[in-house]
Specification:
six-stranded mixed sheet; alpha/beta; 530 residues
Length: 530
Amino acid sequence: MQNRMSVADTSVADLVLVGARVRTLDPARPSASAVAVRDGVVVAVGDEGDVRDWRGARTEVVDLGGATLVPGLTDAHSHPVWGLEMATGIDLSGVRDPAGLRAALVGAERVDGWVIGWGLDHNVFGGRPVHRSLIEDALGGAPAFLRLYDGHSALVSGAALAAAGVTGPRDFPQRSEIVCDSAGTPTGYLIEHAAMDLVAEVLPRFPYAVRRARLLELLSAMAATGLTGAHVMDLGDVDLLAAVAEETVLPLRLRLAPWCMPGADRDTLDELLAAQTRGGRNWRVGGVKFFMDGTVEGGTAWLEHADCHGQGTDPFWPDPQAYAAAVRHLHTAGVRTATHAIGDAAVRHVLDTVESLGAGAFLRHRIEHIETVPDDTVPRFARLGVVASMQPPHAAYTRADHTDEWSRRLGPARAARAWRIRDLRDAGAYVALGSDWPIAGYDARTVLATARVPRGASPGPGLTGLMALEGLTSHAAVAAGESDVAGRIAPGYRADLTALTLDPVTASPDEVAEAPVRLTTVGGRVTHRA
């Protein structure tokens, strides 16, 4: 038996898992059949004989019946707290055209008089302008706030604009826009967070008890798909999270990265530094999230050449060097950063920024999304030690024939280099995988499957089964700076574990997407059992 515990440390385990096919992702011992857990960490890995001495009267022994045990799956990009507000109201993800949108709104339930929806696909509009006239006749005068699927834009009604006091264009310190017609009248299309927040701030808010119940229900549902943790790319309602974590044990381990937005001064940066001390059981603040651009569909991805609408040439930070200075300040203080960068110019600027930090920046910073980049950009990730954080399910919003809004805006050349997940892996980069819930579904098995079979505009080939598993385990751990405690099953590592009834490495992607989850544990505590 190989473990890191001295003889003096040997005592009774809290949990012993037997009858498993264990994929440890530990080079020292790649496979096993039994694991022992005590005080939230793995204390023994081997066969059933190796862990027999760890059993006692208080030990729970679980026979996994041949299931495959892997390091706990971690979604490397998710919004489980703030996402509860984003995913409020009617789910519009199934709408396919303007007529279907109006039909969905006619019968939509009102929330304190409001019609609230989310997940609306840009492709619904078929390239036509996003305008409130498309929905007003279905609302009966009710205020409406409909988030588009990218989370960076919304369509709102005239009554909603009036409720928020929005009557015309405004200037923002970040790349945001209240889209207006030639007369200066808002069309109802709000692009990026500062513009959307004007209306979002007047939306009805659910009471604490409802939000608490929704949060626990969501996290439990995530655990049922095999997730043991998530890198949360926002601070969200951190007070709600902290209160719930005091009252009960969170089903997932959450690592939060608060936002740093354009205009941040030294006081703001110091506040972000101070926030790094916040945390509780199964949650902590760890890192800072930046935005270097927006989305292709919204015309706010920062591109080296304008998109087919003449947009996309402006960064989210009006002064890109101010972004670089903020990253440098946080890096010097030992804080990791994650930067949303979708377009080629945005990705290049982030890589340039990290390169300017020197060798000490290796594996301390990451880029989120990376939807289109040229050949010369790909090898820089491995050379600079920048982790690529990517979300395979996003490609489902595009089409192989490039008739979707994303592809049309970029044009065929840039659309042909979409979501280069395999290219980045083959170049030696660490690639952490996630869902970006609620932008896409949170099911970890879907992320594993879609990473192997690219869809929509994403060209092949996909990842191997092992690469996909690493993206949700060992590479996610590297992205969080936790590779010494997470991402493998080995003595001394956290007992965050996922058991699937089939081997996610060798089973087909379709089988993986539907694989029953036998057991999920976080710190040795069972969060899902089937």
